[in-house]
Write a structure and sequence with these properties.
Elements (H helix, E strand, L loop, with lengths): L3 E4 L5 H10 L4 E3 L11 H10 L3 E4 L5 H9 L7 E4 L5 H14 L9 E4 L1
Length: 115
């Protein structure tokens, strides 16, 4: 099954738009679509998991801790952490490449930092 991505509230939406420009078939939902503004990390992870979406976030500080807490209790489609220092196009290229070359099952209950 192909990846379905969910942007965290802190993710620069230009990354999402760049991914969709690379390939409009990528299923990448905005944070606004799940009303994630001001939502605690555990609830963000719960909402993404309920929709079968891998969370894409810039939150390198607290998300790893909350992710570990979350997967101790239930399964997650996974998390990609993107350094805010990575350029928009590099982040989009990585996400697009991963979408093209892998399946959703490969990331269940894992957290990955890109690149």
């Amino acid at each position: 099954m192909k990846l379905k991505d969910q942007a965290d509230n802190d993710l620069d939406e230009r990354i999402l738009r760049a991914v969709l420009r690379l390939n409009s078939e990528v299923d990448f939902q905005t944070a606004h679509a799940l009303e994630l503004h001001g939502v605690p990390d555990l609830e963000v992870l719960r909402r993404a998991a309920a929709e079968g979406r891998l969370l894409v976030s810039h939150d390198l500080k607290t998300m790893p801790y909350h992710f570990a807490e979350f997967v101790a209790q239930q399964d997650s489609p996974g998390v990609f952490l993107i350094s805010p220092k990575l350029s928009i196009i590099e982040a989009a290229d990585w996400l697009h490449l991963i979408w093209e070359a892998s399946e959703a099952e490969e990331y269940v209950n894992s957290i990955r930092r890109l690149p």
